Amino acid sequence: MLELAPIRVNVISPGTIHTNFNWVGAEQETRDKSYDEYTNMNILGRVGHADEATHTTIYLMTNKYTTGNTLFPDGGFILR
User: Fold this and answer.
1) Which residues fall within 8 angstroms of residue 57, CB to CB, at 6 or more apart?
2) Phi then psi dihedrals of residue 8, to 5 deg
3) Which CATH number fits the domain that encloses residue 8?
4) Quick one: pLDDT at residue 70?
5) For 43, which of 10, 57, 67, 76 could close a Cys bridge (C-beta 3.0–4.6 Å)?
6) What is the 3-class SS of the chain, one letter each residue?
7) Which structural domain, as residue segments, surrounds residue 60?
8) Which burial class, exposed, middle or buried, applies to 39 when counting CB atoms under 10 A from its CB (0-12, 13-18, 19+)?
9) Closest CA to 14 of 74, 80, 78
10) Cα–Cα distance, 74 to 12 (Å, whole number)
11) Domain count, the chain
């Protein structure tokens, strides 16, 4: 297994990320209800933004010493 050590493997497991795609085709009432449910699912009380997930990706791309990790940019959802 150590012969594979030069290959870095990491996982990003994001929570709900707000994008325009989240709500395509949904009625406004459904959007509002879903958004409220998502914001209450994590301890920060909001959904994430794409740039927040991007920062996690950039960190993993630039830190060559990080391997074998799962990062959770999820607003604390995993803590519940």
Assistant:
1) 12
2) -85, 135
3) 3.40.50.720
4) 96
5) 76
6) CHHHCCCCCEEECCCCEECHHHHCCCCHHHHHHHHHHHHCCCCCCCCEEHHHHHHHHHHHHHCCCCCCEEECCCCCHHHC
7) 2-79
8) middle
9) 74
10) 10
11) 1
Tokens for 40? 């209450």
In the prediction, which pLDDT does 44 show? 93
Q: Average pLDDT of each block of 10 consecutive residues along the chain (80 residues)? A: 84 90 82 87 91 93 94 90
pLDDT score at 43: 92
| Cα–Cα dist 3/14, whole Å | 30
Q: What is the dihedral of CA 35, 38, 40, 42, to 10 degrees?
A: -140
